[in-house]
Write a sequence for this structure.
């Protein structure tokens, strides 16, 4: 049974995560948005520590809050002058952006609940049958090369990040 203090910390961090997530998306200045994203990543690490996954919490802080955020900030500073005024998008673009975001959100929720994840079972089937999913099963699903495993997308994202870094450096050298 969770203690009252643990529950209070959970809800306080959840509220802060929600607030900083909204602030990261709606911030006008890109460096402030990156700072708010850093707070979101640290809050996620707090959740890992609360659940007893100390290794995942440490990796979250070291890799994402540390390394990836430094990468984002360097990419922002290389490609965007901090004092440069950004042009606000018109309402037509905002409407299309909202429609694409809402559609993507619905599709992601559908995929999350009904796509086969572990051992060919979807999340809905695992939750309804009370199947026990271990951290080992989740790790194998993310890093395996079999059907319904995610090694290829993981590697594709790493190549995409490398291409972004090279593009940022190339753009920065042209100025």
């Amino acid at each position: 049974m969770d203690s009252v203090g643990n529950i209070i910390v959970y809800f306080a961090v959840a509220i802060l995560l929600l607030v900083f997530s909204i602030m990261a998306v709606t911030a006008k200045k890109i460096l402030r948005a990156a700072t708010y994203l850093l707070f979101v990543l640290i809050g996620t690490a707090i959740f890992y520590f609360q659940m007893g996954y100390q290794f995942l919490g440490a990796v979250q802080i070291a890799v994402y809050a540390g390394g990836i955020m430094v990468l984002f900030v360097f990419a922002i500073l290389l490609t965007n002058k901090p004092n440069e005024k950004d042009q606000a998008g018109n309402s037509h673009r905002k409407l299309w952006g909202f429609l694409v975001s809402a559609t993507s959100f619905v599709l992601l929720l559908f995929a999350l609940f009904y796509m086969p994840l572990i051992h060919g079972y979807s999340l809905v089937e695992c939750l309804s049958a009370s199947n026990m999913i271990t951290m080992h099963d989740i790790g194998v699903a993310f890093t395996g090369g079999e059907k319904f495993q995610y090694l290829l997308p993981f590697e594709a994202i790493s190549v995409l990040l490398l291409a972004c870094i090279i593009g940022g450096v190339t753009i920065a050298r042209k100025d």
Summary: Residues 54-79 form the longest helix (26 residues). The chain has a mean pLDDT of 79.
